[in-house]
Amino acid sequence: MSSPITKAVIPAAGLGTRFLPATKAMPKEMLPVVDKPAIQYVVEEAVAAGLHDVLMITGRNKNALENHFDRAVELEALLERKGDHNRLAKVNESNALADIHYVRQGDPRGLGHAILRAKMHVGAEPFAVLLGDDIIDARDVLLARMLEEQHKRQASIVALLEVDPSQIHMYGAAAIEATDDDDVVRITGLVEKPDAADAPSNLAVIGRYVLRPEVFDVLEHTAPGKGNEIQLTDALQEMAITPETSGGVYGVIFRGRRYDTGDRLDYIKAIVQLAVDREDLGSELRPWLRAFASNLD
Ligand code: UTP
Questions:
Q1: Binding pocket residue ranges, ligand 1, CB within 6 Å
Q2: Fewer C-beta neighbours within 10 Å, C or N terminus of the chain?
């Protein structure tokens, strides 16, 4: 029996060019979704699944990230003096969440390259990867299900979402075989950002992975691929076709709510969808939205 997984790696070193100029001096993972930075939702998700050891892969604008998960002594003192315990609790929410570590990627040479930076911290255990700009709605279960499948199959696990064929060119696409579990498939191949005509399916890889440590050996020799970046998809493709040495790759099909906050349109939708269900905002936002929508052509 393997020991339970405790480590989560959160890559947050991408340049976020789709979100310029907002991301000129701030990582896209720090953009607020309602009133919390996207990455705080992601850390909360890791912790909720029992992963208390979090390694963030940061880039050139790492200060905002580190400060967010650290104490804010002046702010705390001010709110304490005012007796504003509500807001004080909000300030402190992020400092005590998890045991957070940081490593810098240096050159952002792709997601695969970012993950490789986690090798020393992770060691020889399986670990989870959560992309810092990808939010899974806390009301829908994904990571816990993936951890369960990793334990059962001792393979690497990716999260899959069925997307419209017109969208598949933005994702890694999976070639699959069914298993006895309705929400689990065996991955027989992966292609990064294919044209719709070349995609092996409309099952897209989204930002959650539970990986065996063999991924590091594979990433070490993975050549730059699409966009001249070292692609995690390419490493997983190799693992999918060498199950005897790498344990193989399975996919858990997610049918819940997911928000890609690195994409401007999805970001706007995420804020609206999360805010309408919030106790403090929903009752005012819903009627306003209805009236606003009824005036659109
Ligand atoms: P994206 O594919 O969204 O790329 O990265 P990006 O460069 O951040 O954004 P755009 O396309 O220019 O707008 C997916 C995830 O991988 C991380 C990102 O921070 C994001 O969480 N990433 C990407 C790295 O950590 N390092 C990289 O070199 C590339």
A1: 11-19, 57, 105, 108-111, 113-114, 131-133, 262
A2: C
